[in-house]
Specification:
Length: about 150
């Protein structure tokens, strides 16, 4: 899971995030610690995690859970959704999203800007920008929100 996340970052954020960050040899270890905590730490018990596999190898990861701070209009935060570039367009991203965020749930996420492919994917799934922007790890991000669907 950590290797898929790092490789996806390298594929997605090259040119948006400094190469020294993306190519840091300790990045996989740091992401491995992140996933261990996400999977076993009691603080993250309410989170939902899913992986997508192809021929027995992980090729996508997703994680959603309660927002760190409650926000009006949405109840689930999509924290992670990455699929290796070789598997874009296979339906893996949609399956991962559905696995961690119910179609009836209101949700929000942060997406790099510019990242037209990811933003189009989220729009296809009912997310729209809400006008909120932040810079995280040197990457400009916009927040996209999907209201509850019945």
């Amino acid at each position: 899971m950590a290797r898929v996340l790092v490789r996806s970052w390298q594929e997605t954020y090259r040119g948006l995030m400094p190469d020294r960050v993306l190519d840091d040899p300790s990045l996989v270890d740091a992401r491995e610690r992140f996933w261990i905590a996400a999977l076993v730490d009691e603080r993250y018990r309410a989170n939902r995690v899913a992986v997508a596999e192809c021929d027995g190898a992980v090729m996508g990861v997703a994680m959603a859970g309660p927002p760190e701070a409650p926000e009006p209009g949405w109840s689930v935060h999509l924290y992670v959704l990455y699929v290796l570039a070789a598997h874009h367009g296979t339906g893996a991203g949609s399956a991962l999203l559905d696995a961690v965020v119910g179609s009836h749930e209101s949700a929000a996420l942060w997406v790099a800007d510019p990242n037209p492919r990811a933003q189009a994917f989220y729009r296809k799934h009912g997310f729209i920008p809400d006008g909120t922007m932040q810079v995280e790890d040197g990457v400009r991000e916009i927040r996209m929100v999907r209201t509850s669907r019945t």
